[in-house]
From TrEMBL:
InterPro entries: Cell_Envelope_Struct_Comp, Invertase/methylesterase_inhib, SLH_dom
Keywords: Coiled coil, Signal
Native organism: Lysinibacillus telephonicus
Official protein name in the record: SLH domain-containing protein
Pfam families membership: SLH
Amino acid sequence: MKYKKSVGAVLTAGLLVFGATQTFAEKKMFSDVEDNAWYAESVQKLSEFNIIGGFEDQTFKPDQNITRAQTASIIAKALNLDLTNVSNPGFKDVPTTSSHYPAIAALTEKGVFSSGEYFNPGDSLTRAQMAKILVIAFDLNSSQLKTFDDVNEKDWFYEFSGKLGALGITTNESKYNPQDYVGRAHLAAFIKRTIDYKRSDSIDDIWDTWQGWDNTEVPDTVEEPVEENDGDNDVIDEEETGGKEEVDEAKLKEYERELDNAADDIKSAQKKVEKALDELEEAKEEDDEEEIEEAEKDLLKVLSDLDDAIIKGEATLEKIRKVNLKELNLLQSVLENAIRKAKNDVDKAYANTFDKELYEEEIDDALEALEDAREDAERAIKENSLNLLQDAYKALETAIEEAEKTFEMYEDSTVDVLEDEEKELEEAIEEAKDLFDEVGDLLEKKAEDQIDYFKDLLDDAIDALDDALDEEDKGDIYDAREKLEKVIKDAQKALDRLEKIDMDALIDEIEELEKAISDAEEELEDSK
């Protein structure tokens, strides 16, 4: 399991709107942004997330300097700030009628901008000012500062530019060029790098909940209206529309419940992992070999449970994404984030907790389980029994899944001295998969034959009952009813067992048997 680093889904208190979530717009293409331009990806991503916009003529104007007012509106969108209730900062040059007023007011209240008599909204933004805005707005921290030849320790922006350099948000080497103006393309690049950094750090915040940020393709979750220029080179706020599929309230609640349950299951499994890790640490502190071995086995079990919860969560996400409802975006993001964090926890536990002896034991156990399942499968094939084939099919499936988990667990660990055992397990898994397919083919054929057998029995029993009813022979009618009842009972037992076979190829046949049983029950009831 090669999982990437993840973080949680908690919103930053005080700065961000609780419950807010960023959604996609239709993918935009600007006529003056070439695909191979160094800033193309940043512009595209921020445009898709409605953080930055273009102009009515479908251009972006990447080289145009950005103003302080425009920057405020863009940063407010990137932070998902609540702009509905803001306090007037009292700038004489920022009227409350300005489209940028809410953003400027909110950011000033948060300390991103300094209060004073004038804001100078039309001034071009400098790189020094940009550094301060990004560091304060996104709460960027670094224990080290990068130094630049043109930035003195006494400069007011020394710490801000130093943090951007240390975190890799600015890629300049020797000079920072603090008094240079910031172009629209440069601001887009700086904001994207900042959000990328915030999503990769260990602090839970709103950017971790943005679904699709890392995707290369953007789903059509939002249809965006035509862009308009507000008169000073910024795009007005765009109204988001809902998903394309309408759904009733009951169905929506069901989807919400599925997302909540999936996230809760993951969190519950994570708590068990945390408890198991604590118990293992206690055993190691006491230096009790037996307790350590037992604690390691317990940890492996709960990690396996967490793996299962992750897989189920991903299946739920895939299902809900197809529904394409804006109302579910926040819960989707929470589940996405829970999955990312859980995967990270699994990786860390596998990589740092277990030693060579335990991995060797786990590989041996996996090989033994595969061998047992293989022997049962070969016996089932030889006897060609439906019941044995069904049991062997399930046993092989379970053994393969567990063996693959063990194989992936070892691959993700820091242990690298079991190459021969690793290769043996990999080969055993492949052999088991081939046998699994063979058993599956035989099982499918036997199941289809049994379904046909009971369908024919039901038809014959119904025909016998119809004949008895036509002849109005009470004795024959009684016998025919008894026979039909027995066939229905036997067919239902067979159906119950067949339904436990997880095979897509049998879905239609099983449904046909269900219908045949239902028709027979109806026929029996009508005859009374």
